[in-house]
Structures are given as C-alpha cells and as structure tokens.
Amino acid sequence: MRLPHYPPGTPTLVLHIGAPKCGSSAIQAYLGANAAALAPYGFLVPDCEFGVGGQTGGYQIWYLEQVASLDDPTAALTERLTALARHMRENGFHTALASAENISGRIELIEPFVTAATAAGLDLRVVLYIRRQDSYIISAYQQWGAKNFASVKEYALGGGAPAPWSWIADPWALAVGRERFRLRLFQRGALHGGDIVQDYVQELGLPTEGMADIERVNRSYDEYLVELGAEVRDVFEGPHDNGFFETMERLLGENAYKKGSSSHLLTYGQRRLCMRYYRSDNRKLRKAYLPDWPRAELFDPPRRDEVIELSQIDRLKKREAVLTRSVYALTQRVIALEAALQSAAAAVPAAAEENVPAPEACKVADEAGG
Q1: Which residues pair with 127 in a beta bridge?
Q2: Region of 36 on the Ramachandran plot (φ > 0 left; ψ -120 to 50 alpha; else beta)
Q3: Closest among 90, 89, 128, 86 to 107, alpha carbons compared
Q4: How open is the CA angle 44-187-311, to the nearest 5 degrees?
Q5: CB-neighbour burial class of residue 21 (10 A; exposed 0-12, middle 13-18, buried 19+)
Q6: How many whole angstroms separate alpha carbon 213 and alpha carbon 120?
Q7: What is the pLDDT of residue 96?
C-alpha cells in the first residue's frame, strides 16, 4: 500500500527497525535516558507498548513480539497507535520516536503496522541501519549463536547468516514509500562523528542541548569466554539466556568482556568469501538507497587487522587462560568468605564473655561476615 499525502501538522512516527547488531541498544538507551528531556521540544518517546505513562526504555521489542502472535495484529496495533496519535495531538507532540530491531525480521508485521499507522493518522517514517555481513555474523554468534552452535561456521551454515539486507529494506521502502525510508550504514566512517547515537540524532534533527550521554551498552563478551560457553550449551535455556555470561562476569569483571574490535572467529579468507557472497545485493542497495555514496562498494572491505590469526593450539591456550582466571577469582572469593566466617565465629564468644545479649551478638557476627 502507498501512504497518503499528509497535511502540515500531521504527527510523525519515526520507527527505527534495527537491523539487529547494528547499534540498536545504544539508540534505545539514549531514547530511554532522554525521554523527559526530549518532550519539551515536541518529541515523544512512547513507553514499551507504544503507550504513555508506562515503562519507557526507548524500545518496543517485546510488545511487537506479542503482537506478532495475535490472530489480528492490525486491530491491536491500530488501537494502540490511534491512542498514541490522540495523545500527541492533545499534548503538542509533533514526532514520536520508536525502536524495535526485531521487526526487521518480522516481515509479516509490515502491512499491519503500516495499516495501523495510516488509520491512526500518523506520518510513518522508517530508519534502518545495516552493517557488513561478516561482522554481523560474528556479533550475532557472540550474542545468540554460541548458545546453540559449537562454532561460528556452524552457526552461519545453520541459519545464522543474515538474509540479504534488501530483503528487509525493499519491503519497508515499498510499504511506506521511498521518500519515507532511510537507510544508514553502521560503519564508523559512514556515521556522523563515527558514533551510532550521534548519527541517529543528527539524521533525525533531534535537539542536543540538555541531553544525557549514555554508557556503553550490550557489550560483547570475550570471544574465548563465548567459545567456552559454546562447549556447555546445555546450560542455556534459549538464545536470550545470558545467565552463564552474567555469572562469569561476576567472577572476571572487565576480563569477561571483549577488548578491541578484532576477532579470531572468522579468518580473513572467510570474511572475504562472505562479502563476496553478498556483493551483488550490497551493490543493489547502494544504487537504490545511497546513490551519492562516494565509494564503489557499499561497505569497506575486510582488513587483515580486523582478524586475529590463531592456531587451534593457541585458541585452546586462550580458553585455558580464561578458565585459569576464573579459578583464581573464585579461589579469592572462597578465601575472603572463609576469613569473614572465622572473624564472625571469633566475635560470638567474645560477645558472650562481655555479656552482650544474643541478638547483639548475632549482629556482630553479621557485620563481621559482610
């Protein structure tokens, strides 16, 4: 369907649809942190269910997952977006900022969403960020794939490799109109200021005065720790279960996280082969959506300094180092706990000799144990 021509003053809904692993968490964290600061400028950040007054995290991911399972998603979305549009008109908001990267993989929600936005009288605009496919595969394996596949290669061959980005871009551009669809590259040299949040803010013309900065979000775990997790995949309840990594983070602290952007999970040759596979589609995207892009190819080619070349023995040694750090950290905690227990045990008899009432003695022991 084609959207109608909207008169001046029509409230706008800007929907950021990812793609996954393209900086979405940073955009959502920024929107959530600055929802109140954006409001006086006429920008509304809806709550997590496209409403107002509920939890505002800058995203609507899980609500759309629920909607996708309904028999009539159009009706549910129409009701929610109509209420949102009414609130915008009554309270002087000209633009709503929503984000849900999962909808980029929910092609079946395009028509219901566009239909609902049209019925609500919202001028729908769509923003999509995409990244080099070899980097996407590595990042996706670290977050989801390692919980089901033993290696990044198995993950890619087992369905983890992304579909051509045009499979997402084209249906959305067709649904909302090319002039309402914006494609951006999640690539440092293509982002304003080399930063995803700064790029989003500048592309949408958002105000910057009085806005809060955000800390790094959704950081990648150490690749050798990820490989250890892949060896015990039975501990994960699903691709979104991070219990194992959160436990290891408590033990290892900063050592649980990846340092630098280079990776050993794909070789230089594998990266080049991957990008060769997607070359035709990427060129099509460049021509259709970024005709003024100054380079012949959509993405920068893989570089050797992005790859850590390791033998299998060296990879095992790296994993062994992670295990050694874990044992050391755990041993330190056991020693500290034993010392606290000994201190607490010594405090109880001392309290008894001084005729400290029993509850007070217990309090002394608790304080000694931390």
Answers
A1: 16, 182
A2: alpha
A3: 128
A4: 130
A5: buried
A6: 33
A7: 98
Sequence-ordered list of residues with C-beta below 8 angstroms from that of 146, at least 6 positions apart, any chain? 155, 226, 227, 229, 230, 233
The single residue listed with the structure tokens 């899980």 is 62
Token duo for residue 227: 């490989």
CA distances from 122 to 26, 59, 115, 313 (A): 25, 18, 10, 58
Q: How far is CA 46 from the centre of its chain?
A: 18
- Distance between start and end Cα atoms, the chain: 64
Q: Locate 206 and state its tokens.
A: 């958002």
| CA distances in angstroms from 304 to 170, 268, 271, 308, listed in the order given | 32, 6, 10, 8
Q: Which pLDDT score, from 0 to 100, does residue 357 have?
A: 59
Q: Whole-angstrom Cα distance, residue 16 to residue 128?
A: 6
| Per-residue pLDDT at 1 | 45
DSSP 182-215: EEEE-SGGGSGGG-HHHHHHHHHT---TTPPP--
Stretches in the chain below the pLDDT threshold 70: 1-8, 350-370
CB-based contacts of 310-319 (< 8 A; 24+ apart in sequence): 310/264, 315/224, 315/227, 315/264, 318/224, 319/224, 319/227, 319/228
Please choose, from the candidates 143, 141, 144, the residue with its C-alpha nearest in 3D space to the C-alpha of residue 152.
Answer: 141
Question: What's the chain's length in residues?
Answer: 370
Give the whole-angstrom CA distance, residue 32 versus residue 24.
Answer: 12
